[in-house]
Amino acid sequence: MIQRSSYLCTGQAILSTNCLVQPTHPLSPNVCRFLLFTGDFITEAQRVAEKNPWLNYALCLHRSREMGFHDSILDGLAERQLDRDELRELLVLLFGKKAMLSAPDVHTEWKEFYDFLNKLNRTEGKHWKAKTGRMESWIDMRKLKKEYGTSSTRGMLQGVRGLFSWNRGGGARRAETDRSPYAVVDI
Q1: Cβ atoms 148, 84 nearer than 8 A
Q2: Alpha carbons 117 and 114: distance in angstroms, whole number
Q3: Spatial separation of the C-alpha atoms in residues 161 and 113, rounded to whole Å
């Protein structure tokens, strides 16, 4: 009998008080609902860097997930690029709610937000970055600016980025995996 629990695994066997589950065995849907598998630290850091290259996915973030800390933002870092609202939520996790209370609005005051974050990022300690093998800040500000701050139009479209794929003609077409009932409008 499986107890209702969240298990987090890095490819090793999962041991609970009542069962032993090997990741190579087919898992029943009842067990899978409560399992969240994550790769080893280096693999996860590489996957996060592909989607969110500005973030230093440090070992302490990975260990938090392994210990069962559940946050949808952290769980989605390797799956897709964060939009600006999710970016702000992640920054609250990294720097604390109190530090982020006086932050300018990420949508309407990007330059001020960027400057605020730059100061905050410099005051924090550094963490080992798997990709470079060096101690680095949480945020690579140059890469963050490239991803989120190049133009106001890009910033506005961050939230809908996954809904469309852009063709060479400048218009939008429905992404092949999108099953959204909403119409696609040429821009």
Answers
A1: yes
A2: 5
A3: 21
For the chain, domain boundaries: 162-187
Per-residue pLDDT tens digits for 13-26: 444 434 445 555 55
For the four alpha carbons of 158, 161, 167 and 171, in that order, the dihedral sign comes to negative
What confidence tens digit (pLDDT) does each residue in 55-83 have? 999 999 999 888 888 888 988 899 999 99
Highest mean pLDDT among 33-42, 105-114, 150-159: 105-114
CB-based contact 16:68 (threshold 8 Å): no
Give 5's contacts (C-beta < 8 A, 6+ positions apart). Answer: 16, 34
110-123 and 141-148 are packed helices; what angle lies between their axes, rounded to 10 degrees? 160
